[in-house]
Design a protein that fits this description.
By secondary structure, the protein is an all-alpha fold. The chain has two domains: 377 residues, no CATH class; 63 residues, Tetratricopeptide repeat domain (Serine Threonine Protein Phosphatase 5, Tetratricopeptide repeat, Alpha Horseshoe). Helices cover 71% and strands 0% of the residues. The chain has 23 helices and no strands. Helix 14 packs antiparallel against helix 15 and helix 20 packs antiparallel against helix 21. The N and C termini lie far apart (76 Å).
Length: 451
């Protein structure tokens, strides 16, 4: 195998250029869908005093603070996009650092080259657009940034005996991650997973001593979330919708869908039409797939710990929490931002085997990077207007009433009333009980008759 000469000093600049090339046109995107509920029409993020008045009652205070600072900065929509791209760049650098540590611990040859390719895949994959270009997708990007920073700080503290990183910075970053999005509360499980996969000595007493503060914070944050009135209401409403078995079946299928989205990333969809599944027979293929993946992870634990970690991390971020606290939408592409940062590692390690034929290896890597970057550029074009985004969505979810209702609303806002009426009518045909579409159509017709 030929050794790939690579100067690590140039890697951050290379990653920055890749992100700007693939995500730069996302700067032309407009506010979309949830952006209006959590930013544009949400008074609590329009001033620092308003943000402070809500801090004891609302959720995700750090996320809201970033919205507030953007809102009062005077930079407008451009400022929101700049922050999102900056978050993505910072997260990408963390992905590179963690991937390099992972491959080093697994004794993979040429870890710098493999880590760079895996990180490039993360940086320019079109699935990242929902966390980067969609402004309110920042919740996932910000949470991922602090989660991975907490993981890296923990590793730095544990491996280099730097107590300030282990017991200071890592726990603080963990708290900031949960303050950005509450699903970051599973981070201590991720720390445990890393130790089990990559730690040369697995002394239980030492492990518990290193992680004790993280698990203590986990319990405290769990109590804080449970006693937050707004979060408790949301949790109870969500949990009352389906049984635990239904949640399990639905999430198994959702994981398969999301893995498929990552592997075949040319059908991005901000509102996928995934079913809530109540019958075990409907998810037999999914159950078989993930059983095989789990067995593979266990069999590879000694010789390919990077593969074990990739499979287990992916499942950890998508399955356990949502069995007991189901999402109102079964899956969204932005869920893969944290869950999927490891998925490029198996591809990168397999690519190393091709370096014996460097021309072929470089050509395949270049083709993969150009293809992913091109798809990201195309996907970012969908965010140029609300109409464009929902037109793309109804193509991917042609049987989902909500997508047509949102398209109709976008048409109405743009003054295209005939197209709006047609979209609302389609939504009602698909789901006669969709009261939003019924009300929107009635309001549109009343307005056209001068009432």
């Amino acid at each position: 195998m030929r050794t790939l000469s690579l100067n690590p000093r140039y890697i951050p600049m290379l990653l920055l250029l890749a992100i700007l090339a693939s995500h730069g046109n996302g700067m032309l995107g407009v506010f979309q869908f949830d952006d209006y509920h959590v930013i544009v029409d949400y008074d609590y993020v329009h001033s620092l005093s308003a943000w402070w008045s809500d801090i004891g009652h609302g959720m995700r205070p750090l996320l809201k603070l970033t919205y507030t600072l953007n809102w009062i900065s005077g930079l407008g929509l451009v400022g929101f996009h700049l922050v999102n791209i900056g978050l993505h760049l910072a997260t990408t650098l963390l992905v590179y650092a963690l991937t390099l540590r992972m491959l080093d611990a697994s004794h993979v040859s040429q870890p710098y080259a493999a880590a760079l390719l895996a990180t490039l895949i993360f940086a320019i994959h079109p699935l990242a657009t929902e966390a980067v270009t969609y402004i309110s997708g920042r919740s996932m990007a910000l949470m991922t940034l602090f989660s991975l920073a907490a993981l890296l700080a923990y590793l730095k503290g544990a491996q280099e005996c730097r107590l300030s990183w282990l017991y200071g910075w890592s726990p603080l970053l963990f708290i900031l991650a949960v303050a950005s999005k509450e699903t970051a509360i599973l981070l201590p499980v991720g720390l445990l997973l890393w130790e089990l996969c990559f730690s040369p000595t697995r002394d239980l007493k030492s492990l518990m001593r290193r992680q004790a503060i993280h698990w203590f914070i986990f319990l405290v944050l769990l109590l804080v979330l449970l006693f937050n009135h707004r979060y408790w209401q949301m949790m109870m409403f969500s949990a009352s919708q389906h049984s635990i078995s239904t949640n399990l079946f639905s999430q198994l299928h959702a994981m398969t869908y999301l893995l498929g989205q990552w592997l075949l990333p040319w059908t991005m969809n901000i509102d996928p039409d995934l079913p809530v599944i109540q019958d075990w027979a409907q998810v037999l293929p999914d159950a078989l797939l993930w059983s095989v993946m789990m067995v593979t992870a266990m069999l590879c634990a000694r010789k390919r710990p990077w593969l074990t970690f990739a499979i287990a991390w992916f499942m950890l971020q998508l399955l356990p929490l949502y069995i007991f606290l189901p999402r109102l939408d079964v899956a969204n592409d932005r869920q893969l931002y944290l869950a999927g940062w490891v998925l490029g590692v198996p591809i990168a390690v397999m690519w190393l085997q091709l370096l014996a034929k460097p021309r072929l290896a470089y050509a395949l890597a270049a083709a993969l990077v150009l293809a992913l970057g091109g798809m990201t550029i195309v996907r970012n074009c969908d965010y140029r207007s609300e109409i464009a985004l929902w037109q793309a969505t109804v193509q991917s979810s042609p049987h989902k009433a909500r997508a047509y209702n949102n398209l109709g609303f976008a048409y109405a806002q743009a003054g295209q009333y005939a197209q709006a009426e047609q979209a609302y009518a389609t939504a009602i045909k698909l789901d006669p009980g969709n009261w939003r579409a019924v009300n929107n159509l009635a309001h549109l017709r009343a307005m056209s008759h001068g009432f």
